[in-house]
Every structure is written in structure tokens, then in C-alpha cells.
Amino acid sequence: MRNKPWDATLLTKITLVFALIMSAFPIYYMFIMATRTNEDAVETPPPLLPGGHLGENVERLLATEDANFVTGLVNSAIVATTVTVSVVLISTLAGFAFAKLRFPGSKLLLGLILVTMMVPLQQMGVVPLYELMVTLGWTGRLQSVILPFLVNGFGVFMMTQYTSQAVPDELVEAARVDGATTMGIYRRIVVPALRPGMAVLALLVFMQTWNEFMWPLIVLTPDNPVVQTSIAALNSAHGTDYVMLFTGTAASVLPLFVVFVLFGRQIVGGLMEGAVKA
Asked: Which domains does the chain have, with CATH numbers?
């Protein structure tokens, strides 16, 4: 008989609680320091309770012209949302095609996609990609950090595997017998079945794009940054202002918390469904 989650041993529960504390404490401390002063940041032992300087720190953060923090937040929201929608849409279409449609070269194409996952294309292709952006006149513009990430090999592979498990072949064939077109099958059968997996992929892509630093640092200008390059500029402008760094970092992770709260049920459901099917 399978053990239930609450049948875990005491050692297992203690280990899980310890792991939770170790994972959550850095985030908690970051928000605590966002409410403190620089004098508090160098105290020993460090303060563990909130202070009363959050509003002041946020005002100083927004007033820092070198960082353009508000612009960075808006740009990151635009870039991350656009890339996420594109990756999820293209990945589900490609996953449906690879998993349920038969066409010449499908296995070869899927193999090539797997190869792109094994090679660090972003690091290896920085120079030619930057030259392309210069040729197009896109340096310093958001197109340069959106276009290279509109398609994701991992997303295609993930949705191919998910589609093969979540959508039975008999259901697709029955829809074809009833006269449904390929796009009709995709809209009415595939998409509803893939929603948990789409939610998981959307969260992963949104987090990856939101936290992207190297390529935006190369191709964007300080006047038109994303949030991660804004924090880097904040660090350069205020090398020892730890509270400003903590405040900026705390503000940058809030959208990720909002996304998880809004889609948490679908994300957990998708992970659990994948685990059960596996």
C-alpha cells in the first residue's frame, strides 16, 4: 500500500522544514534589509525584524537617475510577457505537430532541436548576434532582447513530451472522423489538455526572461534598460549602498511572486500531473 504524505517519518519532516527555512531565509532577509538603513546592514548580528525606512528607500530607488529603475521594470514586463506568449504558443503548436502529426523529417527536426539544447548558443553566438542587431539598427531597442528568445528548444521538447502523454491518439482520430480540421483539433482538444503544462512552461520562460542579464547588458543602453541591468547600474552608482541594492532586488522579484500567485494552482497541477504520468 502506498504511503500517504502525512505518513512521512519525523526525520523527513525535520529535513523538509530545514530545507524550507534555508530556501526562504535569503528572500526574507532581502525584504527585511529593504526596510532598514545602511547602518543596520553592517550590524553584527544582522537585524531580523522589519524597520521603518521602506518608503524612504523606495523613494531613493525611484529617484536614482543612473539606474532608470522604473523604465527597467516596464521594459522587463514587456519583454518577458512577449517572449512568454510567443514561446508558449510556438511550443504548443510544434509539440502538437511532433507528437500527433506525421510528416517527413519530423524525427530529424526534433533531433536538431535537442542538439540546440545541448549547445550554449547564446554564449557562442553573442558576436554574430550582436553584429546582426547592429545591421538591423536595433541596438538599444527592446526588439534586440525579444527576437532572439521568441522560440525555445526546451519548450518545444517539453510540450512534445507533454502532448504525447496528455492527448490520446484515439481522441485525435475521432475528431478527424467527425470532420475537425488540424487547427480545430488544436484549439478544441489539444489546448485544453495542455493548459497545466502551458502554465508550467509560461512560468519557467517568464522567470528566465525576467532574470536575463548578459545579453541585455550587451545590447541595451543605460537609458533603455531592463530590470537586471538597472540593478547592475544601481550597484555601479552606489557601490556601498547595500540598502539600495536590497530594495532594488526586492522590487525586481515582486512580479515573479505575482505571477506565481496568479498561476500557482495551474503550475502545481501541471507538475503533479506530470509526476503521476511519469
From this structure: 1-63 (no CATH), 67-277 (1.10.3720.10)
